[in-house]
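Forgive a beginner's question, but might I ask you for the amino acids of a protein and the tokens describing how it folds?
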Amino acid sequence: MDRIARVTRNDFVIVGRAGMDFYPDPPGTKTEEATRFVACLGGSSANIGVAITRHGGRAALVTSVSDDAIGRFCLNELAKYGVDSRHIRSVGGEARNSLAVVESRVEDHQSVIYRNSAADFQMTTEDVAAVDYEAYGALITTGTVFAAEPSRGAAFHAFDLARKAGLPLIFDIDYRPYSWPSPDVASEVYSRAGRLCDIVIGNDDEFGFMAGGKDKGLAKARELAGSTASIVVYKMGEHGAITITPDEEFRTGIYPVTALKPTGAGDAFMGGFVASLAQGHELRDCVLRGSASAAIVVSRVGCAPAMPTTAELEAFLADHPGPTDS
């Protein structure tokens, strides 16, 4: 746990992607019937960075964006939210930023994600080597970064450099099958990454995927906590979460809300969780604050713009019943 204490610096370097999200407007509109869309910053790592800055922390993103209007949109949005973009490289040629068309509806929800020739997969070992890891309190990454080369090798190199600098490694499994060449490759790479990290967060499907079956997921989470990780959070959707450390295991429930959409919850949970760790909250409270952040985000349009501030989170916790019994 000594390395985890460095999180209290509240200054995070995040390796991963930034993208553009399109939301059919007004909320509830189906994509094929839309005549108007709202554009927002998206991408799991960018969303986490926004969540951290909304809570008063500092976040820097390491990735590549396309050298075009969409890439510049992402850079402008990151600047608006106060996420440091000094480690982001613009790439030309056929590389394109990811684009997600996401409906603000739960029933018959549709998300269409374009990842052809994804610019963020062009991140290199040179990009991550240029970062001064001593300046940060922790490294965060999400699983998408490992799905293709050269990004995969660059991310593992970032792990090595961050570890040498004494940073804790925080991993959101974030399995997206469409990004990977095969499930077997994904399972092997995720297992390798998980063994290197101090904090591992994922849902029951993702841990089950790593373990070779959903019924084996919880055992996989316990194995990581018993061997290499200091904190493992095994999320179970509406059934809450099981948090496991080398010394304890406890369950927590969720905060029920009327959801506007099913997306963004994982990024919100991660951002709220690590921000709460940085602020010195007890581990159980960090998990609950992450869960509350997820509840807030699914009840709002967008992902990055939906991330709550600390004041909004505190108001939610004061006024909202919950969490449900786990």
Observations:
- The longest helix spans residues 283-298.
- The chain has a mean pLDDT of 95.
- The two ends are 26 Å apart (CA to CA).
